[in-house]
Design brief:
The complex is a heterodimer. Chain A is of the alpha/beta class. Chain A has 13 helices and twelve strands. In chain A, the strands form two sheets. In chain A, strands 1, 5, 6, 7, 8, 9, 10, 11 and 12 form a nine-stranded mixed sheet that branches. Chain A has a three-stranded antiparallel sheet with strand order 2-4-3. Chain B contains 25 helices and four strands. The longest helix of chain B has 22 residues. About 10% of the residues of chain B have low confidence. The chains are: A alpha/beta, B mainly alpha.
């Protein structure tokens, strides 16, 4: 249910109490029309934090701005010729390393947001990420993040929760009746991908953590069984943790939706588990996919776009995104997830068209693709919010890179996104227009984007958003029309 | 000594609860006097040190290399006319100079008993290195030294004390330059004092550049100081708050927000030498900057502090170190770390009394812990944290694992070295490290280890050698009945006997 890091382990011990606390805060949420949780929709939200400050002017390049090329010089994305940007709205072009994202844009499933920033105006990564993830109005110590606080008010969707059931009943095989014990008012469980839970997902709501493998070795059934037997006789807590860990591993490997194929029921007789019999691994035998009509169209995924094989760190990113989709499509599994990916601090030899940053964009593009394909039909109900702590300087520096800036870009992708647009109140790149004479001036508060998503996609009311989720931000209105 | 006491004062507890896990033969070797073995680690106060060397440079050298790299960046930027500097960044030198001649003289080699053998005045890494390279290389060398010491040490209790105090006063590599300084911070501010006095460690920690960067005091400016009157930047309370909440009194220590603010005012000007105008000898070292210091008399815990300069802050630290709440806070945290979430109250009381009676003598504190039968009798409750788990595997099975791999595995399990997520440090509850995915990954690591165990070792013999005579019947049985040697080793590593201490 949680990972031993920064107090998150407390959830394990406090889950009962946590549940009561959340039930209290639920009253805030339940005042609104529950569009998102009424049963007609099953919305998913993945937040990807890109650490190190992504160069927004290299991601979505304002080629229509007369100052752009002279500021960026060699780091400018060209309008035509080699490495030409992919056309967006005539004013902006998309970095050519992201053809899949461009396909989504054309299908109106990607929204680019530009000249946006958190309320933070310093230039420290550390503080900038804290503000980005805490959801506070400035730098202040925080033990919880905005996504977890949003999650804490959402009731759990459905009652046949594989993971919840495992955590409630392990190590004994879970009977068909066991999942019914999960209360409809139980809080949603968040998903954190990676060894460390990012601040945005820390807090009182329970969080399931997926950790990448230490080695690519298969666990052996016989050993697993004997270990479970040993724990059953000696250590109930280890038994519970280990059983949950196996279940998480199983979902990450098998998932519930095969990429670009009709969704298959999870853990039926036809679906071999990687090892062991399901009943011995604490898997409820009755877990099935949500009913999906067989004629539902597959998500708009251009499959003919050639993709170069990504380098090692990006492979991890892609595999993580792929695994996230498996969890978020599992019946009763988590619906709200977070993952982070670092290394965007491009002070030198930035390589916008070919090189460092282009490779990173290609990795991000492949990760988005892996996640989109992994979501299968659920993509239609999915929003991915991709954010970074701040932008980079408008001018290229002397080492063919850029330094810490202010205004930057953010992305919303997913079948539920009202996309095919660039959302920007463009301040311009003239000397006079730059923030402090050096940075893209922010003209939108990133919190308005976050709020618009949380309100229109998850159904969280403005009042809660302005006080609990983003404390003291009542004056910042959630953007309208982000969600289809 | 009664039979019962002999049993509980057993060698396995000595090596696990108070150590980093036994090596082959350790249990037999120390079984005559397990407590004596642990106490022997406290005999030599200097044994915890890792001296400077060519690879392990003092923090002010590392800082100088960082500034050099930043300067090179500024020079390069200066070739781009019109590129404004970041606020606070040094102006680039004239363009006519080749960048190599601009590297400032490195700090002189200081003749100090702590650093007698430093021969290279500049970091090898500094020649043309980027900021990122300096950070990476300094971190790598320090991490390797730390991990190599943990694997090879014959006084593992001492390393456990280093880890405890390093976590109590943690800094994190997630914050910029701290990555380069975290290792030398531990060697300079923690290791010399683990068997010394709490007040000395406290002062060394709060005045170390790594801490001053991590908790932002290096840039805190008194609003009524000379610097404060000309600038918009001001007081930063971060370090002051954590001194009270985490480092000394504890969160229930009875201080108020006014105390936090006043302490922040008193330690304005505590910074370190950086930038162009600093004498070479001050570069990267603690420095009191009078022009940033908030003038005035400020009460903290109802006592006014009115000395001038850095002395006021030092007086506060000395008083906090002696405060009864600090003794209580440290005693409880110490007992929880080594024994359990709910340590026997007489043990906590004994630790608290020692701390107070000896004016924070940390060797005496450790001795009180080890001397108390209560600390040995409590059942093994604490899940071995990831770093210690991996180190104990390398020690126990004599693995040829590189330090980088040790840290990679610790990171996979959630505990990358010197990279905590908050100033609170790593969580320390009995079950803190019981996240489902990491527990599962421990089995994968066990599987890899089992493959690497030398052929011909009998798991039953290894069990006695690494877990000891007190191993549970269930574990013994599971290992005896294992289908293969490898499976036996996997079950041993994953058994509660190995996973908890």
């Amino acid at each position: 249910m949680s990972l031993g890091q920064n107090g998150c382990a407390e959830h394990m011990m406090l889950s009962r109490r946590g549940l009561l606390t959340t039930a209290a805060s639920l009253s805030l949420w339940s005042l609104l029309p529950r569009v998102a949780i009424a049963g007609t929709r099953d919305p998913r939200l993945l937040v990807i934090v890109l650490r190190g400050a992504v160069d927004g002017l290299a991601l979505a390049a304002p080629v229509g701005d007369p100052a752009y090329v002279s500021l960026r010089r060699k780091l400018a994305v060209p309008k035509d010729g080699a490495g030409a940007g992919l056309p967006l709205d005539g004013f902006f072009v998309l970095n050519s390393a992201m053809p899949f994202l461009h396909g989504l844009y054309q299908k109106r499933e990607a929204l680019l947001i530009h000249a946006v920033a958190t309320p933070y105006r310093g230039r420290s990564h550390f503080d900038g990420q804290d503000v980005l993830e805490s959801g506070l109005g400035g730098v202040a110590p925080s033990e919880s993040g905005w996504l977890n606080r949003a999650l804490a008010g959402l009731p759990h969707v459905g009652s046949t929760a594989a993971l919840q059931a495992v955590s409630a009943a392990a190590p004994q095989p879970v009977s068909a009746a066991a999942p019914q014990a999960v209360s409809a008012a139980a809080p949603q469980q968040g998903l954190s991908m990676g060894a460390v839970v990012p601040l945005v997902m820390r807090g009182s709501a329970p969080v399931m953590s997926w950790t990448p493998k230490a080695y690519s070795l298969p666990l052996r059934d016989q050993t697993v069984e004997r270990l479970m037997d040993l724990y059953a006789h000696t250590d109930v807590k280890l038994a519970k943790a280990f059983a949950e860990g196996l279940e998480i591993d199983r979902i990450a490997q098998v998932g519930a939706a095969a990429p670009l194929a009709a969704a298959k029921p999870l853990a039926t007789s036809g679906q071999p588990a990687p090892s062991g019999q399901p009943s011995q691994r604490g898997v409820p035998p009755n877990v099935a996919q949500p009913a999906v009509p067989s004629n539902v169209a597959q998500p708009a995924v251009p499959s003919n776009v050639a993709q170069p094989a990504p380098a090692r760190p990006f492979r991890d990113f892609i595999e993580t995104a792929e695994a996230a989709a498996k969890f978020m499509t599992t019946s009763g599994g988590p619906r709200i997830g977070a993952l982070s990916f670092d290394g965007w601090d491009t002070h030198a030899n930035e390589g916008v068209i070919t090189g460092q940053l282009a490779n990173k964009f290609a990795g991000l593009d492949a990760a988005i693709r892996a996640f989109a394909e992994g979501m299968g039909p659920a993509w239609a109900d999915t929003v991915v919010l991709i954010i970074t702590e701040f932008g980079r300087t408008a001018r290229t520096n002397g080492t063919e890179g850029t330094d810490h800036g202010t205004g930057g870009a953010a992305l919303l992708v997913g079948g539920a996104v009202n996309g095919g647009r660039v959302l920007a109140d463009w301040p311009g790149l003239s000397d006079a227009a730059l923030y402090e004479g050096r940075d893209l001036k922010p003209t939108q508060d990133l919190r308005s984007i976050m709020k618009g998503v949380l309100r229109d996609h998850l159904g969280i009311p403005d009042g809660a958003l302005g006080s609990v989720v983003f404390p003291g931000s009542a004056a910042i209105k959630g953007s309208q029309g982000l969600i289809v | 000594m009664s039979e019962r006491v002999t049993l509980v004062l057993d060698a396995s507890t000595a090596l696990r609860r108070f150590g980093l896990g036994p090596k082959f033969g350790d249990i037999v070797r120390i079984s005559g006097d397990p407590r004596g073995f642990v106490l022997a680690a406290l005999a030599d106060p200097s044994a915890a040190r890792i001296p400077d060397s060519v690879d392990l440079e003092p923090s002010h050298f590392v800082f100088a290399a960082l500034e050099d790299a930043k300067l090179e960046r500024a020079v390069a930027r200066a070739f781009m006319p019109g590129q404004p500097l970041k606020p606070g960044e040094p102006a680039p030198p004239p363009l006519m100079f080749p960048s190599a001649t601009l590297r400032r003289a490195a700090p002189p080699v200081m003749a100090s008993p702590e650093a007698p053998t430093v021969t290279s005045p500049t970091m090898a890494a500094s020649a043309g290195s980027t900021v990122g390279q300096v950070r990476r290389e300094a971190f790598r060398d320090e991490a390797f030294a730390r991990i190599a010491r943990a694997i090879s040490t014959t006084t593992p209790f001492l390393e456990r004390l280093v880890q405890f105090w390093s976590n109590h006063f943690c800094v994190s590599t997630t914050k910029g330059s701290v990555r380069a300084l975290a290792g030398s911070y531990e060697r300079e501010a923690i290791r010399p004092h683990v068997l010394g006095r709490f007040c000395d460690m406290l002062k060394a920690v709060e005045q170390h550049p790594a801490m001053l960067i991590y908790l932002d005091n290096a840039h805190s400016i008194g609003p009524n100081s000379k610097a404060g009157q000309n600038r918009t930047r001001g007081l930063n309370e971060n370090l002051a708050r954590e001194i009270l909440e985490l480092h000394t009194l504890g969160v229930d220590g009875g201080y108020t927000q006014a105390d936090v603010t006043n302490l922040a005012r008193v330690i304005t000007g505590w910074t370190f030498g950086q930038g162009d105008k600093i004498a070479a000898a001050d570069r990267g070292r603690f420095l009191f900057a009078p022009h940033r210091h908030e003038p005035g008399v400020f009460p903290i815990l109802a006592k006014p502090y009115d000395q001038s300069g850095q002395l006021s802050g030092e007086s506060v630290l000395a008083d906090l170190a002696r405060h009864p709440k600090t003794a209580r806070h440290i005693a409880l945290k110490f007992a929880r770390h080594f024994v359990s979430d709910a340590p026997p109250l007489p043990l906590v009381a004994a630790l608290e009394k020692t701390f107070r009676d000896t004016d924070g003598n940390l060797a005496a504190l450790a001795r009180t812990l080890v001397a108390s039968p209560l600390a040995w009798e409590a059942p093994a409750a604490k899940i071995v944290p990831p770093y210690d788990f991996v180190v104990s595997l390398v020690r126990g099975f004599d693995l040829k694992m590189q330090p980088g791999e040790v840290n990679r595995l610790a990171a996979v399990l959630g505990q990358p070295l010197w990279q905590v997520g908050s100033p609170k440090g790593w969580p320390d509850a009995d079950d803190s490290w019981m996240g489902p995915s990491p527990i599962r990954e421990r089995l994968r690591i066990a599987e890899k280890v089992a493959k690497d165990v030398p052929r011909g070792l009998d798991p039953r013999a290894v069990l006695v050698d690494l877990v000891g005579a007190g191993v549970s019947e269930h574990t013994k049985l599971a290992i005896a009945r294992a289908e293969t040697r490898e499976q036996a080793f996997e079950l041993m590593i994953m058994s509660p006997d190995f996973m908890r201490r």
